[in-house]
Structure formats: structure tokens, C-alpha cells
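Field guide to reading this record: the first block holds the primary sequence, the second block holds the structure written as C-alpha cells, and the final block holds curator observations. Each block starts with its own label. This record concerns Blue light sensor protein, catalogued under organism Psychrobacter sanguinis.

BLOCK 1 — SEQUENCE
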Amino acid sequence: MPLHEENTANTLDKISDDSLIRLVYISSLTLKSRFKPAIFETVEQEARQYNQQHGITGTLCYGNGHFLQCLEGKKQVLLPIVQHIFDDKRHNNVKILLIQPITSRDFDNWDMRLVFLERWLWSPKTKKQANTLSRFLPFRPHKWSTDNTEQFLSAIQKIQTPPHIRDSGITLNAMGNMIQHLVGPHQAFIIVQLILGILAVMAIALLFG
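BLOCK 2 — STRUCTURE
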């Protein structure tokens, strides 16, 4: 389990239980979960409800099949919920990027804000506002160093209205509009790209067959 990794354990042992800490982890959404229309709304609601009750702040980011979650709170409060998150079968490839004691919260007004890091989901207005995030896209946090992680968190804090599916003004072709009545916008995009890819392969086969 990630919380039992040697580096993680050594870091946590040096921090008292009542200390305020910041913990950042990343994971990959499973293929099965990606096709569940309500997956993001469900995860966001679960996180917000629990965090409001336990004084946890932070942000939850998703892009390119990956989650990054920053959590701020007392160590003794954070660890049980983090372990529960690591046990969640909706995602895998869990890795802790950052654990550090802090004197104050950077996300003190964020009970748990969900940020989508996929430009195709953003409206033109959102793209202007989120320009500072461009250098972190495509979103591949598993390759990040501690410095990359801290720079990303700093950029996220500057976003006044986070990029979000419900506010993104998504435009899809006719096929996408038909499909999104059955699934969510994110899943519609995946399905449309899959269908177009299959059609392209078939066209090439017919052309050169």
C-alpha cells in the first residue's frame, strides 16, 4: 500500500499526529470507470461531503485519465481517508508525490474543487483564464518531480473559476450529441474518437486492400 512505502513512512514518522500537513497523490482512473457517466460527479460529491465534515481542504484534478488530489488537514484526520482512497477500486497506479508539514493552508477556501485538465472540455473563456496551466498539459503527473508538483499547485490557485465540464460549453459533432444523451460528455468524446478511429482503419483497408 502506498502509505506503507518506506519513503512515505519515514516522512510521516517525523510529523506529529496533530500537525497540519499537505499531501498530494496521483492515480489512474480504470478503463471501466472511465465509461461511467456519473463517475466525476460521484467522486466530487463524496470528497466534498467528507472534507467539509472533517476540516479538509484542497483540490481534485482530472485529465488524460489521471487524478491528482491535494489534501490539507491534520495528519491524524488525513491518513484514514487517504488509505481509503488508495483502496478504492475505481482507480489504480497510486503514487504519493508530496507530503510536507505546513503552517497555513494554500487552499483554505476550497473544500474540494474539481478541476478538469482537458482543453477540449474548456470554453474559449475558460481557455483564456487557464492559460497558466498550458505547460502542464497533456496531463501526465506520474512523471512529475516535487518541484513540478509545487509549481502546478501554485498555478491552480490562480484559477478563479476552475475549468469544469458543466461550465465548458462543450461542442460535439452530431454523433457526439446523440451519444452524450446516453453517457456523459467525457465518455462521449472517448466513444466518438474510438468510432472515428475504427472508420479510419476501415477506410485505409478498403483503399489499399
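BLOCK 3 — OBSERVATIONS
Confidence is low (pLDDT under 50) at residues 165-183.
The beta strands are 20-29, 57-63, 66-74, 91-101, 113-116.
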